[in-house]
Design a protein that fits this description.
This protein is of the alpha+beta class and 590 residues long. 15% of the residues lie in helices and 36% in strands. The strands form eight sheets. Strands 29-30-32-31-33-34-35-36 form an eight-stranded mixed sheet, with helices on both faces. A four-stranded antiparallel sheet has the order 1-2-3-4, with no helix packed on it.
Amino acid sequence: MSGLRSPLPALDAAAAAVAYDEVRVSAGAVWWLESRPDEGGRVALMRLDAGGPAEEVTPAGADVGCDLHGYGGSAYAVAGERIFYVDRRDGHIHVKDKHDVHVVLRRRSADEFLGDLAASADRVWCIRETVSGDELIELLPDGRFQVMLATEGFLGSPRPAPGRLAWLRWDADRMPWDGCELFLGARDADGIGHVQRVAGGRDVSVTQPQWDHQGRLWFISDQSGWWNLYRHDGEEVTNVAPIATDNAPPEWEAGYCTFVLTPQGGAIMIGLGGPRHELLVTGQNGTRRIETGYTSFKPYLAVDSDQLYAIAASSTHASNVIRLNLGASTAPEVITTAADSYDGISLPEIVHCPTASGEAVTALVYPPWGASADWCAPLVVRAHPGPTSSINSRLDWHVQYLTSHGFAVADVDYRGSSGYGRTFRRELYGRWGTVDVEDCIAVAGHLLSAGRTIPGRVFITGASAGGYTALQAVSQPSPFSGAVARSAIIDPDRWRLTAPRWQRPHAGALTGPAGTVSAELIQQPVLLIHGSDDHVAPVSDVRQLGCGLEAKGLAHRLLIVDARHRMSAQQAAARALEAELAFYRELLDR
């Protein structure tokens, strides 16, 4: 697709959106998860040995993933020559060795979930979620297992070391990025004893515990107001790199790894200071930046001696797994096969916009393909999902699809986004549908004042929580002439009951005076796009809103596609893109 100048076809944009996740080094090989948009969005486990091509190691048709805590993560582990993985098709843990593949731990019911796998040489630990709480399980390759811990709240990140085990626990009324505790205990034949709380609490977030070769426990905590790297040496806890930068995102999926330890006793970590990420190395001589040429890093790093592996992207390069030689000044090597760079694309500008509160929010503004310096174009403002997510300076094929068809796009890091410290991340609590809308309106107003667009040609879109933001934005006077909502949350109060058990505290904390999206309040045409099997945002809520808009006589369209909450299958993603573009064009032609 290099050299594209004509508008980007929706199928091409959907096919290009290959996702890589959970890169790791184990058993002398590099492993990662790789989505297959052309196979319904299924996820394959890949392995790359030295000198050989990458190959899929899971059986044909296997879909590696889980729904633990609603969003899954850490769905595979390598223990010696055995590969353990959760297959999304049945939710069971499977094991593959040299001889066969078989189920080693079964999911007992439809409302029980397995995931967050971690391995030592001869066994695997995992989390089992039930309707009444979480269990930490120790699992042997022959299928024998025992429940090591149980809680009415949540458990995560089991990390074994010789004779010891570390893990995270947080209360049932908390999200892990609001309050979480790190524990360690002694492991013996009778279970876990001598339990010690290392860090965290009701109002301090701890994440990503990791042992070093000296038996010290490293982790990330926002005790200082920023997610920084800490180390526990058995007696004291030390902030290893006290910087005003987040070194982790909210852990929506299990298994994030935004730092790795170096043989020299330091660490390499991701700095998430706004839309542009960076790699940082910290040690005895302080903290410095590693030049890579990339501006976006997924929260998965792995290291093998002097080789660093990451999932990296930039505004001109799609996400791929890269290998960086830490002992040489050579450029990173791309080791996966997604199309890497493109000509004729739209490059973003970072813009800081004042809001009604006086605070400034950050946006990435993309002009249409081939635009002149004084461009003026129809504008689509995007509210990211989460809402505790963030915008990233990386090649995004939703954006490029729209800009290739003559639209400008503005991605907004509204208040509540991550990457700006704990205080900013919590500013949306109790004000969802209010301050996020204010910030999106502020960005649109800024671009209108700058002459980058004109009234009547400004739209808003969002997915999941961002879909709620988009719908609330057209439920009041605003610059937006229409809204597109994908997989949208409609009723925050109902969502507190229908969201995955893990996410219900988030729904409760976010809910504010904006309330339910009401057909009576919506003032502009809307397009609702939703998956028929959405396990996070009930499709029934969207259908009900569509009926209300029909009764009101307001222009709208409801598109139900064969997808879950994330529309990763190529056909579903392409239909959504085509419908969105047609919706904007119809409004422009009025």
